[in-house]
Design brief:
By secondary structure, the protein is α/β, with parallel strands linked by helices. The protein has helices at about 5-25, 50-55, 100-110, 120-130, 150-155, 160-165, 190-200, 225-240; strands spanning about 95-100, 140-145, 170-175, 175-180, 205, 215-225, 245-250. The protein has two domains: about 1-30; about 60-250, Rossmann fold, CATH 3.40.50. A five-stranded parallel β-sheet has the order 1-7-6-2-3, with helices on both faces. The chain has a two-stranded antiparallel ribbon with strand order 4-5.
Length: about 260
């Protein structure tokens, strides 16, 4: 039958491909992009331990108001017990996971020259976006900006790299939200009040910005006390934004306000 040679040739091609792939894995074993250890799983960019660490902090159950882990049964009126009395300046949040385990290590590396992590970081952010409650409402993605001095020193804005990897049918990226005052890293601030003071008045919008009357989604890597996202949201609302949402890779400080 005429199908026999085709089947034979297909089987032979697969056998050759598997052999070459196996030989390549033996000679050049894959390395985990997170910890650097060799991975026995062909085609995987993370080793088994890092995947497990990632899965352990990426629970689907979290408060869509503040981003912290919470049982869905604890949500009342759209908020959880942790954020019921908390000042939150945005209309909703989506996040990939908590700031711990493999995710924490990858984010720290991503902020410090490990730009090869951008594909998995963007994949995590996009997965959170696709399952958000506001996906269809977004008109504009706005990366949380760095001051030009920090941008010059680092060489890139990790929030912009995240935004660039998001998949949306119509929303575009705008960099017309800018940081006009150099601030100390938020991680160095000793309290939520100090964080809020550190970024107060630090943002502005460019002339002829596109935000008026539109629904905007801020993009950042970490949310801890809301200080940065709140200040950015305030600036965007003053510029006429109809709604402001937030998309972050991780939420830190499970018990911190």
């Amino acid at each position: 039958m005429i199908t026999t040679p085709n089947r034979t040739s297909n089987w032979f091609a697969r056998a050759i491909s598997d052999t070459v792939g196996g030989l390549g894995q033996l000679l050049w074993p894959a390395k985990c992009v997170n910890c650097g250890r060799h991975s026995i799983e062909a085609g995987s960019i993370l080793c088994g331990d890092c995947w497990e660490g990632l899965k352990s902090v990426c629970s689907a159950d979290y408060c869509r108001h503040c981003g912290r882990d919470v049982s869905p049964y604890a949500i009342c009126g759209g908020v959880c017990p942790n954020c019921r009395d908390e000042e939150i300046g945005f209309d909703g949040i989506a996040r990939a996971g908590m700031y711990a385990e493999s995710l924490r290590k990858m984010i720290l590396a991503f902020k410090n020259d490990r730009t090869e992590l951008d594909s998995i970081m963007a994949w995590l952010a996009d997965t959170a976006l696709q399952t958000s409650t506001f996906f269809r409402d977004i008109d504009i993605f706005v990366p949380v900006p760095l001051h030009w001095r920090r941008r010059f020193h680092r060489g890139y804005n990790q929030s912009y790299l995240l935004a660039r990897g998001l998949k949306h049918p119509s929303a575009e990226i705008s960099t017309d939200l800018v940081r006009i005052r150099y601030t100390k890293p938020q991680s160095e601030m000793p309290s939520p009040a100090a964080r809020a003071k550190n970024v107060k008045g630090a943002f502005a919008v460019r002339y002829r910005h596109p935000f008026a009357g539109h629904k905007v989604c801020l993009v950042d890597d970490i949310k801890t006390t809301n200080a940065t996202l709140n200040e950015c949201s305030k600036t965007l609302r003053e510029a006429g934004a109809e709604k402001v949402f937030a998309l972050v890779l991780s939420v830190a400080g499970q018990n911190t306000r």
